[in-house]
Fold:
Amino acid sequence: MIAGGAATGCSGPSSTAPRSHGGTSAATATGQGPPDWAELGASLTGTLLQPTDSGYAAAGHLYNSLYIPNAEAIAQCASAIDVQRCLAFARERHVAVVAHSGGHSYGGYSTCPGLVIDVSLLNAISVGGATGASGQTSVTVGAGSKLIDVYSGLAAHGLLLPGGSCPTVGIAGLALGGGIGVFSRAYGLTCDQTAAVEIVTADGVLRRCEPTQDEDLYWACRGGGGGNFGVVTSFGFSAHSIPEAITLFTLEWPWEAADSVLDAWIRWIPSAPDELWANCQLFSSGTIGGGLVKVTGVFVGSESACSSALSPLTSAVAEPPTYRFVGPADYLTATMIEAGCEGMPVAQCAAPTQSPFAAKSSYVGGPLPESAVTAILSALSSLPASLPGAGGGVVFDGYGGAINQVAANETAFVHRNAVSCAQYSITYASTAPSQTTVSAASAWLQDLHQVFEPASQGSYQNYIDPTLADWQQAYYGSNLPRLRQVKRKYDPDDVFHFAQSIPS
Structure:
């Protein structure tokens, strides 16, 4: 589980300084000097690391390199009992605590100035024997598993779990906050596949939450965001049989057609077959006045059926694409391509990486006003002048299909009537950008946020945004009151607290 949620894509804050994560530092919490970390370490089956230890930096890895690990200790837990011992230690000594899995929290919320409970060693994946009438198979996935390991591990059994595309994202942060990916319109979000959650709550109890047991916490763990209710140790998911045919596609147009492409795409995607997932990508070209526009996606079915599904889109754009690819791929190859790991071994794809970036998101329920489209394209084509060397883009991920067939209150994930989620981001040219550069990027993103605001239906909690003002409503909407009730029941003392945690 990642506090504050994990990224589903590999794409942040307006400051390079780590934020406060609640609680107090371990050294001053009790007024009796620092806690006896050696005592905690000796009680664990796993390993306790402090800043002077050689494995500390790797254990506290944060994908967004604008942030650095600032914990006084990182506990690499080897069991749920280790997690329980860490929580008991932290509560007794009033030490701030946070969970860490893949470290992809956009806001750096996977670290804190006290104790980090790292579950990355809890990464076992097993397949059950029970298969339901719908063709789904029960699987158990450790909370520390990375997405690419989940996909490759299940693929060996002919199984598919819908999830994100970024290979090193932790399964816990993804699933707890929702989980959008290339098979989501066909099968639903990752949280929609969650059959059970094993979680250590603030009172130190290991609970197995299911539809008939701790059902309110089970509900909250399907879209209520990572880091809010406890430390997840494992998930039970319902996996799908890998389909017989999978088709990948990419369509590109000249920048001059970008307005036509975006408008056509956002009108087309709601009526596209559920088997089809697509995004519309708009990027700065690095040259003033230019840009890149393309539509990519995955279709569960044959090449000919995919081409038929794409026909209404290409017909609606004023000019034909300058590049077109539509072709078959086996499941694991398709997954590796979507992860940016084409031709790599799985182990290389799973290796931790870092990127300095900032991002915001907005859900939209239909076509954007012409003025908004013009403003988006203008912002991208003028980006090189305001942020030389930086990369920027707006990516519209398609919703609908199986995602929107679930009622908004059936799970904690409330965004069930969106057509798309737009993520707009800046990737810095330097790993340590200046404050002037960071401020310029923040202003660029905020301007785009204002462009989306009239049509916005909220923001994605897995693209957690430290600069978002009305984040509670934006992330959780009408489900917020129930989430607060669950928080009060299972964490009344707000042990799991960070800058954008659900308040108790």
